[in-house]
Design brief:
With 248 residues, the chain is mainly alpha-helical. The protein contains 13 helices and no strands. The chain has two domains: 103 residues, no CATH class; 99 residues, no CATH class.
C-alpha cells in the first residue's frame, strides 16, 4: 500500500473498555475454569491496572466516551461499591482471596452500569468541569493515533525520573503484576483498534536474546528476582531496557 492510499484508509474505531470487560465476564461465566479471554487466569491486581492501561490508550486516542466516563461516579457515589482502599483488596477480603469471585463481583457492576437507562445515566452526579457526559454524543473514532507502547514506557520513564514511588502516578501500588496489567491493557486497546505494535514485539524478543530473559518467560518474575523482590526496581529495569533498546 502506498502512502497516499494508507492515509486515505478509514480509521478503525476504538473499542470501549466496558465492552471488553463484558466479553471477559461472559467468558468467565461460560467456562468452568481459566485461562480466560484477554486476561488469562484471574488476578485482581493485574486486572485493576489492565483497566488503567486500556483507559490510557483511549485517552491518547482522543475518543469521546460519552456516558462511559460516568462509571466511576456511579460505582462510587450511586452504588457505593468502590471502597476507599480500592475494589480489589476489598472484594478479595470479602471472598477470602478467591480471585475469580472478586473479579466477577466487579464485572457484575460493569454489567449493571451498562444496563442503565438514559434517564438513570443523566441523573448520575457529575463533578468535573464541562457539560454532563449524558448530553454529549460519543465518538469512538480516534482523533489521533495512540502512541506505540514503547513510546508510552519512555514517557513514563521521563515522568518518574529518579523519584521513589512516582510510578504510583500511573499504576497506584507499585507492583510488577500491576505494571504488566497496565502494559497489556494498553496493548490490547491498540490491537483492537487495528494498530500494529510491532516495535514492542521486537523489544520483547530483544529482552530474551540480549538480556537473558528466560525462554517463554515474561519479564515480571525474572526481573523481580534479579531485583531482590523490589517491584519498583524491577519496573525501572524494564523501563531502562526500553530506553536502551530504543537507542540502539
Amino acid at each position: 500500500m502506498n502512502q497516499t492510499s494508507a492515509m486515505a484508509a478509514p480509521v478503525k474505531p476504538m473499542v470501549p473498555l466496558w465492552d471488553v470487560l463484558l466479553r471477559i465476564r461472559q467468558d468467565i461465566l461460560s467456562r468452568a475454569s481459566g485461562p480466560y479471554l484477554h486476561i488469562g487466569m484471574p488476578d485482581v491486581e493485574w486486572v485493576t491496572c489492565f483497566v488503567l492501561g486500556y483507559g490510557e490508550c483511549l485517552r491518547h486516542g482522543g475518543v469521546r466516551e460519552g456516558t462511559d466516563v460516568l462509571f466511576g461516579e456511579w460505582f462510587r457515589d450511586v452504588r457505593k461499591a468502590w471502597p476507599g482502599q480500592g475494589w480489589g483488596p476489598a472484594y478479595l477480603r470479602e471472598f477470602q482471596g478467591d480471585q475469580t469471585r472478586a473479579l466477577l463481583k466487579y464485572l457484575d457492576y460493569v454489567a449493571e452500569f451498562r444496563e442503565l437507562s438514559p434517564e438513570a445515566l443523566a441523573a448520575i452526579p457529575w463533578y468535573s468541569q464541562g457539560q454532563h457526559p449524558a448530553t454529549m454524543t460519543p465518538s469512538w473514532v480516534p482523533a489521533h493515533r495512540p502512541k506505540p507502547t514503547l513510546d508510552l514506557l519512555l514517557e513514563i520513564r521521563r515522568e518518574i525520573g529518579d523519584v521513589p514511588g512516582r510510578l504510583g502516578l500511573f499504576i497506584g501500588t507499585v507492583d510488577v503484576r500491576r505494571m504488566a496489567g497496565f502494559i497489556d491493557g494498553y496493548r490490547l486497546c491498540l490491537a483492537l483498534a487495528g494498530t500494529r505494535d510491532e516495535e514492542y514485539a521486537r523489544f520483547e524478543r530483544w529482552l530474551h536474546e540480549a538480556k537473558a530473559l528466560p525462554p517463554g518467560a515474561e519479564w515480571p518474575q525474572p526481573f523481580l528476582q534479579v531485583c531482590g523482590g523490589d517491584s519498583e526496581q524491577a519496573i525501572r529495569r524494564l523501563l531502562g531496557f526500553a530506553a536502551e533498546f530504543r537507542s540502539n
